[in-house]
Design brief:
4-stranded antiparallel β-sheet, 9 helices, 17 strands, 9-stranded mixed β-sheet, 26% strand, 356 residues, single chain, Aminopeptidase, alpha+beta, Alpha-Beta Plaits
């Protein structure tokens, strides 16, 4: 099977749950074993990760792909091609990218590579990546450069914002709704604080790839009846901070302007791969060679498993084929882009093998 046929078979597997995601791992392992490659299955808290390594040398390139998906409708697990697009749940995010990584391994297995090439297929990226990619990195499965095959329209996402999800609790004073001046409205206090947060120094900072961090007021919880001034409000914020920004400094600024404690719900590292990293430049050369166009270099607003590698100062990028509507009802991947993506991966690996 080529990369598109493998993608079709993967789409047929509902891997939105642990059983299905592990089934997808088993499917990919069978393909690799049938072609004479050695594999290793690592299981952590029930989640399977597939490892396969070829080549020799001091340098190691990691191809990281996730086979888990978000839930979909029954018809989304019946793949079909229309107007050059392959439709199905997970087609773009990111079974096509993973399939192309797998076939890249197969096509390079007989090459005398002067570098190691390691395929990592994981099963929990959509739910945080803590049981697979984070577990791998923390236990020594590292390399010199990592490609996560997220759908990037054949561009290179070299950086990604960090995650800081917090909540603040505000206290007011209850009063009758007809006499709000006799109370202190906790919801208003929270909203006024939110507007003040938008004007803080960290919120105005820029970087090479970003105009500013993003600050989303995601939830407000307060009040219980119409005719009462609310004495309590919980405000939840989803902050995506820039590479180079310190989340602890962000917390300090928010506490200073709000006068209340910042409670951390979740925190995740930014991806800080440099635009002029040697591996990024080599990958850009392969893209330009095959497309006759300069590679698009950009920063992602969301996050992926790249952040676990970046924490250890390993340059990691998101780089994958062209698709649309992932997590949506009409998710698809452009068939031609998957073949082109495979060519780019192969060219890049062969260039690294010949020396940086």
């Amino acid at each position: 099977m080529d990369c598109i046929e493998i993608t079709k078979e993967l789409i047929k597997i509902d891997s939105s749950n642990l059983e299905g995601a592990n089934k997808a791992i088993d499917f990919c392992e069978d393909i690799l074993l049938s072609q004479g490659l050695k594999t290793e299955i690592i299981e952590n808290n029930g989640f399977k990760t597939l490892i396969c390594t070829i080549g020799n040398g001091d340098k190691k390139i990691i191809l990281n792909g996730h086979l888990d998906i978000v839930p979909g409708k029954a018809e989304q697990f019946v793949p079909y091609i229309e107007d050059g697009n392959l439709f199905g749940r997970g087609s773009a995010d990111m079974k096509a990218g993973a399939a192309a990584m797998l076939t890249t391994m197969l096509k390079l297995k007989n090459e005398d590579l002067n570098c190691k090439l390691q395929l990592q297929l994981v099963t929990d990226e959509e739910t945080g990546g803590f049981n697979c990619s984070k577990y791998l990195v923390d236990n020594g499965f590292r390399g010199d450069f990592v490609i996560c095959g997220e759908p990037t329209q054949l561009g290179i996402g070299v950086q990604a914002k960090g995650i800081l999800q917090v909540y603040l609790e505000f206290l007011g004073k209850s009063a009758h709704g007809s006499r709000p001046w006799q109370g202190t409205n906790a919801i208003i206090k929270a909203y006024e604080t939110f507007n003040a947060i938008l004007e803080l120094p960290f919120a105005k900072e820029k970087s090479e790839l970003y105009d500013c961090p993003s600050i989303n007021l995601s939830k407000m919880e307060g009040g219980d009846v119409y005719n009462k001034v609310p004495a309590y409000c919980k405000m939840c914020l989803d902050i995506r901070f820039l590479p180079g920004q310190d989340p602890q400094e962000i917390i300090r600024q928010i506490e200073e302007v709000s006068g209340v404690k910042v409670n951390i719900h979740s925190i995740g590292d930014a991806v800080k791969t440099k635009v002029d990293d040697l591996y990024v430049l080599k990958l850009s050369e392969s893209i330009a060679k095959i497309t006759n166009n300069n590679a698009e270099i950009f920063g992602q607003h969301g996050s992926a498993d790249t952040r676990f590698y970046s924490k250890y100062d390993i340059p990691a990028v998101e780089f994958g084929p062209t698709g649309q509507n992932w997590h949506g009802d009409d998710e698809f991947i452009k068939v031609d882009s998957v073949y082109i993506y495979e060519q780019m991966l192969i060219d890049f690996i062969l260039n690294i093998s010949s020396g940086l």
